[in-house]
From TrEMBL:
<dbReference type="GO" id="GO:0006355">
    <property type="term" value="P:regulation of DNA-templated transcription"/>
</dbReference>
<dbReference type="InterPro" id="IPR016032">
    <property type="entry name" value="Sig_transdc_resp-reg_C-effctor"/>
</dbReference>
<keyword id="KW-0802">TPR repeat</keyword>
<keyword id="KW-0812">Transmembrane</keyword>
<keyword id="KW-0472">Membrane</keyword>
<dbReference type="InterPro" id="IPR036388">
    <property type="entry name" value="WH-like_DNA-bd_sf"/>
</dbReference>
<keyword id="KW-1133">Transmembrane helix</keyword>
<feature type="transmembrane region" description="Helical">
    <location>
        <begin position="347"/>
        <end position="365"/>
    </location>
</feature>
<dbReference type="InterPro" id="IPR019734">
    <property type="entry name" value="TPR_rpt"/>
</dbReference>
<feature type="repeat" description="TPR">
    <location>
        <begin position="247"/>
        <end position="280"/>
    </location>
</feature>
<protein>
    <submittedName>
        <fullName>Uncharacterized protein</fullName>
    </submittedName>
</protein>
<dbReference type="InterPro" id="IPR011990">
    <property type="entry name" value="TPR-like_helical_dom_sf"/>
</dbReference>
<dbReference type="GO" id="GO:0003677">
    <property type="term" value="F:DNA binding"/>
</dbReference>
Length: 504
């Protein structure tokens, strides 16, 4: 057995050495074969996100070494797609400009349109809806130049769906935008239906946009219409190899049944979704599913099951946070190792600079000390003249200096909010610098509009006060609060969102 493994290792080593001796042409041929793996319809289910990312990085590095721009573009697009799938939106956005430049240079319209669409998705996430619409309009215009009809329909469906997302966000402030939302998500569905029936992506995409239509109708309270779309999506996805796509369909069907007070049915759907999500480690869905199934169990007075799933939800969130922290620490350690290897000269220069700075600091402090003595002598003389009349005032101010400053700052923020001042949120972050980071660690999908509403709630604005500040209806604010609860995954037992934010 040992001899067998030794032979295998020797053969593998010889293959590697032989491969390195071949010309650049063979290297590009090998890159092309890896690109085919990356662009396969079931790449994610076959390899998983981590392996896809590793393979994409290898393809990108080797393509760059060989000045093979097509390989670079394919790898970059797959990295961007993977980053979006794993909510690493900022990382994805940082790679889009280079990818767009390559797509334009290679005259690859389909990839160019897709990349512009990804940029628009990121802008929607940040709350820049006007800029997102401009990008989406550009992508829509360019999409007609895609020669492959199926690829054109796929891209147009995605673009229409993203335009719908813009109106979904805007509908929180103006219900008139709901009609536009329904129109554009339906256009996405219609475009997907035009994909040829023999295309392997068709069922998956038609099901996706049917689900989006169903979701928009669900939140509008049109349960029967929503169910028809969800049922169609379920039928299309039953034979899909990647079972992750059907998980959100079952979750939404469970929500419909829960809204209709069919508690046992809702539990059945949630349970189906949980089994598939746990099997594929689909954490982003499990985050929603565990608290979702806890609600009907609670209504059925099955507190044991309800508590069980709420505990699973808590443990999962803790696990996700630990993994994030672990990844950050891992990257930091790797970066430190590289820095130690490559920057010895920089360390020597830095040490020299530190000595110079220390001398300069010593001279500066000596000057300040001398100057302080002069100031203290002057203040002492002034104190003798003025006397101790202000002693009580000074003592009172020293008791709560931070409290007084905070109260003034909060009053200033409340005034800005009530006047719907554009600078409100920026000023808010100056007072609460970690607010953004903490919220986005809970839900990376929060938009800029969501974060601003959260800030108002943090300042203990009630529904009526938010409506007055934003000059919108109370019903719109209630709708926004409901969606925030969903995005933040707040348990049902937290009745008052303001009290939750007060401890946040």
């Amino acid at each position: 057995m040992i001899f067998k493994y030794q032979n295998f290792f020797i053969i593998f080593l010889l293959v590697c050495i032989t491969t390195n001796c071949f010309s650049q042409k063979l290297t590009i041929k090998k890159i092309d074969s890896l690109c085919k793996i990356l662009e396969d319809n079931d790449a994610f289910v076959n390899l998983g996100h981590k392996k896809i990312l590793q393979l994409s990085n290898d393809v990108y590095i080797n393509s760059k070494k060989n000045n093979y721009e097509r390989g670079q573009l394919i790898a970059l697009k797959k990295i961007i797609e993977t980053d979006f799938n794993t909510n690493q939106l900022k990382d994805a956005d940082s790679k889009i400009p280079e990818a767009i430049q390559l797509a334009e240079k290679l005259n690859d319209t389909q990839k160019l349109v897709s990349l512009i669409d990804y940029k628009a998705k990121y802008l929607i996430h940040l709350g820049f809806y006007k800029e997102a619409r401009e990008k989406l309009n550009l992508a829509l215009s360019l999409s007609t130049k895609i020669s492959d009809k199926d690829k054109m329909y796929i891209m147009r469906a995605s673009i229409f769906n993203d335009i719908g997302s813009v109106f979904e966000e805007l509908s929180a402030e103006n219900k008139n935008n709901l009609d536009s939302l329904y129109y554009y998500v339906d256009r996405a569905y219609v475009e997907a239906k035009m994909i040829s029936t023999n295309n392997p992506k068709r069922n998956r995409l038609v099901a996706q946009y049917a689900r989006v239509n169903g979701a928009s109708l669900l939140y509008a309270g049109r349960y029967e219409d929503a169910t028809k779309y969800f049922a169609e999506a379920e039928k299309l996805l039953l034979n899909e190899k990647d079972t992750r796509y059907i998980v959100p369909v079952y979750r939404f069907l469970g929500e419909v049944e829960y809204k209709k007070a069919h508690l046992e049915k809702s539990i059945d759907y949630f349970q189906k979704a949980i089994v598939l999500a746990e099997k594929s480690e689909y954490y982003t869905e499990l985050v929603f599913l565990y608290p979702a199934i806890a609600s009907p169990y609670k209504d059925l007075k099955n507190f044991e099951k309800s508590t069980y799933y709420l505990n699973l939800s808590r443990k999962l969130n803790e696990k996700i946070e630990l993994e994030k922290k672990s990844n950050v620490e891992k990257v930091s350690i790797e970066n430190n190792k590289e820095e130690k290897k490559e920057s010895q000269l920089e360390l020597y220069i830095l040490a020299g600079l530190m000595i110079v700075l220390s001398i300069a600091l010593g001279l500066y402090l000596r000057f300040k000390l001398k100057n302080k003595k002069t100031v203290n002598t002057f203040e002492s003389k002034q104190k003798n003249i003025i006397g101790d009349n202000n002693a009580d005032i000074i003592e009172d101010t020293d008791k709560h200096p931070l409290k007084n400053i905070d109260a003034e700052q909060i009053k200033y923020l409340i005034d800005l909010a009530r006047n719907n001042d554009e600078s409100f949120y920026l000023k808010f972050l100056e007072v609460f610098p970690y607010f953004n980071k903490k919220l986005l660690s809970i839900s990376p999908n929060l938009s800029m509009s969501d974060l601003e509403y959260c800030a108002l709630i943090k300042l203990d604005f009630n529904t009526k006060e938010i409506a007055q500040a934003k000059d919108i209806s109370i019903r719109t604010v209630e709708s926004k609060k409901y969606r925030l609860r969903k995005k933040l995954n707040l348990p049902e037992d937290i009745k008052n969102i303001n009290s939750w934010f007060s401890d946040f």
